[in-house]
Amino acid sequence: MSTPAHHRPPVAPGDRGLGVHVVLAVKDLSGAKSRLAGALPDPRRADLVVAMLLDTAAAASASPLVVGWSVVTPDPRVADVAARAGATAVPEPASPRALAGTGVGASGLNRALSAAHDAVRAGGVDVVALAADLPALTTAQFEAAYRAASPTGRSVVIDHTGSGTTALLVRGPGAALDPRFGPRSAEHHVASGAVALDGDWPGLRLDVDTEDDVRRALELGVGDHTRAVLENAGWPLGEHRTPG
């Protein structure tokens, strides 16, 4: 998945302390990406979820800033694929953990991301929680967002719709991830103190849920795993490029 350390370019002074750990969460594959049901049958949608996870992780972990990545999931297939690709598999918590003082539920994704954050943050690394369905993400965009983030505290990348969140970044000592994913997550993250990052990062902002999202991702260029799944499913790929 990631580039071997001895082949990576040197990290500029001040770019990192102990490095960056990337955290991704993937729900159970049963019924995955239901809004694509008209374009892809159940097995292909599950394949697409796994492919997008691998391409998202590949783009991020190719950065010399990244020292590791984790996947939190209740799905055994996802856990197995992620572990074979070099991830640390973290089981999803069985019971909710309340987000005190907010109206945002702590179930599902938020519990998963909090668990992974807690597992790695003690090592002193910065943490970037990424959406796992960013097949057009590039390493350059990931690095640019990390460098644009507040050096202490939380920052957020808002998705292409303006309401969701594709990345939640925690830098510096002492800050908690405090995820607020769910409806209007961008609003909730900003209201809780996260700094909204302003950058031209189309692949980082494009999480894929609909057929239009797939077409936009293909126009930007998707990773090899995603492209292979769509090609095998008979999706019209045309002359779309792969991300550079």
TrEMBL record:
- InterPro entries under this entry? CofC, Nucleotide-diphossugar_trans
Give me the residues that bind phosphoenolpyruvate, please: 165, 182, 185
Q: What is this protein called?
A: Phosphoenolpyruvate guanylyltransferase
Q: What does this protein do?
A: Guanylyltransferase that catalyzes the activation of phosphoenolpyruvate (PEP) as enolpyruvoyl-2-diphospho-5'-guanosine, via the condensation of PEP with GTP. It is involved in the biosynthesis of coenzyme F420, a hydride carrier cofactor.
HAMAP family in the record: CofC
Q: Look up the domain of life of the source.
A: Bacteria
Q: Which organism is it from?
A: Rhodococcoides corynebacterioides
UniProt enzyme class: transferase
The record's similarity note reads:
Belongs to the CofC family.
Q: What is the lineage of its organism?
A: Bacteria, Bacillati, Actinomycetota, Actinomycetes, Mycobacteriales
The pathway that the record names for this protein is: Cofactor biosynthesis; coenzyme F420 biosynthesis
User: What Pfam family is a match, any one?
Assistant: CofC
* NCBIfam families, per database record: F420_cofC (TIGR03552)
Give a GO molecular function annotation for the protein.
phospholactate guanylyltransferase activity
> Which Enzyme Commission number(s) are listed?
2.7.7.105
Q: Which reaction does it catalyse?
A: phosphoenolpyruvate + GTP + H(+) = enolpyruvoyl-2-diphospho-5'-guanosine + diphosphate
UniProt key word GTP-binding? yes
Alphabetically ordered keywords of this record:
GTP-binding, Nucleotide-binding, Nucleotidyltransferase, Transferase
